[in-house]
Amino acid sequence: MSKKFEKEDIIIGISACLIGEKVRFDASNKPSNFCIKELGQHVTYKAYCPEVAVGLPIPRPTIRLIKDQDMIKVSRPDGSGDVTSAIKAYGKKVASLSANLSGYVFCAKSPTCGMERVKVYSPTGDPLQAKGIGVFSREIMKANPLLPCEENGRLNDPILRENFVARVYAYRHWQAVVESGISKHKLTSFHAQYKYTVMSHDLVAYKELGRLLARADMAVEEMAEQYIAGLMAALTKTASRKNHSNTLSHIQGYFSKFLNKEQRKELSAQVDAYRTGLVPLMVPLTLINHYLLAHPNDYLAQQAYLNPYPESLKLRYGY
Ligand code: SF4
Predict the structure, then answer these.
(1) Cβ of 152 less than 6 Å from ligand 1
(2) For residue 56, how many other CB atoms are within 10 A of its CB?
(3) Where are the domains of the chain?
């Protein structure tokens, strides 16, 4: 089971318009129901509107990303009102004060906050490829490459939503381990808790992380740095149905000697039903957690995979 955190223990950065602040160019907001009504029950938001923070008024003329030779700037469509430097500097300042953040939700498509695929224009106003990154979000992600980041639109996808929340909780858990002082024992114990989580995301990374922790020629600080970089990269890959099914089969193996024939058959049937897409992941997991209560097993009970975040988020019901 993953470590439990109170709402005030998990701080998530967020574009202010997504939690209802009327700070957009037209004095509107862009509330994210999931962020406000669901995730907001479990985390504390720290909201930023970089455009307002650098002195732009509400309402204000629209700004966009403009590519001029190798330079990307953010300004009004006619090139006036260039706020690139001010927003960059504000991004660096927020990034330097953000070591306590465990995630960030950015507003999609914004030339300031967009995480990817933001529209870029030529100086004459022609649309170029939509491959831009917001000037503010770029600074946050550059300074905190491990920070779980996502956009509001992508959070409507149940798989990406689950992936983001799982990364936030794993990262927060890691931050707590580091806060308490890292040691080889703590590193090994953390990895043991994430064994099935990593397995469900990336089998290759699962083996590589195990090999990394077996090395005797590395200082624990360096090992920890490489470990968390590898873990967060693995968790960023979405867990496929095939990998989940494989992970469930491994967990199933633990129970074989405790369950009677009927129970083993029932568990196999549920894992198969998930594998073929007939039931969501929550169905075999509920049965596994039920059997785990009846047949306690310390190793399984500590697995973040079985309870990665508050169940009331219902993130594993939809796929
Ligand atoms: S997208 Fe960013 S800059 Fe634009 S209104 Fe929202 S918080 Fe402010």
Answers:
(1) no
(2) 20
(3) 7-156, 158-236, 242-313
Mutate to test the pocket of ligand 1, among 29, 87, 107, 136 (most ligand atoms within 8 A of CB): 107
The minimum-distance atom of ligand 1 relative to the CA of 110 is: 1
- Residue-by-residue DSSP string for 252-299: HHHHTTTS-HHHHHHHHHHHHHHHTTSS-THHHHHHHHHHHHHS--HH
Judge contact between 5 and 177, C-beta under 8 A: no
Cβ-based neighbour number of residue 253 at 10 Å: 9
pLDDT band with cut points at 50, 70 and 90 for residue 129: confident
Would you say residue 258 has pLDDT above 90? no
Compute the distance between CA of residue 161 and CA of residue 119 in angstroms, rounded to an integer. Answer: 24
- Over residues 193-237, the pLDDT tens digits come to 999 999 999 999 999 999 999 999 999 999 999 999 999 999 999
Residue 56 in contact with ligand 1 by CB distance below 6 A: no
